[in-house]
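Troubleshooting log. The previous structure file for this entry was overwritten by mistake, so regenerating from the original sequence record. Sequence copied from the archived sheet and checked twice against the printout by T.R.
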Amino acid sequence: MAFNTKVDVADTELEANEAVVDTGDVTLEDEALVEAESDADEDNEEMDEEADESEDSLTYSNGVIEKIVAMATREVPHVLGMKGNLMHFVQEQFGAENLTKGVTVEVTDDNRVVVNISVIIEYGAYAPAIFDDVKARVTERLAAMTGLEVAGVNLRIEDVITPEEYEHRTSQHE
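Regenerated output below.
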């Protein structure tokens, strides 16, 4: 193609009647620009790595996250208690109070938290509403106290009993 006027192409003026052919290839000028951008990206990555090494950090043990989740769950109406595993039962028999009973947490690759909770709820209560309340309370408490985002809440209802029956069971263990 021939042009009869001057055309600006990558800051280069073409003389009248000069042919412009777009081959799709990268020109030396483009290569120099790409190399300059690449070098700048590498410099930024090196600065980021140096910044990562010199920055302060804040980490939470899983036990802390589990404790916050367990305490938040106990605040929800109609949740009578938490259901732990055999280890929790043995600890309780020796008088140890385990506040994280019934809770496990998993941290995802993007530093969000998946929470697994096992509870005992009050007979006659609507379980889906309890799930919604637990999810909202746990998400709010974790965000407020740690800044962590909850990726998911898995609520397992282990038992359904009356408040009186629950009190009777807990008083027998003491």
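Confidence is low (pLDDT under 50) at residues 1-34, 85-94. Archived copy saved in two places this time.
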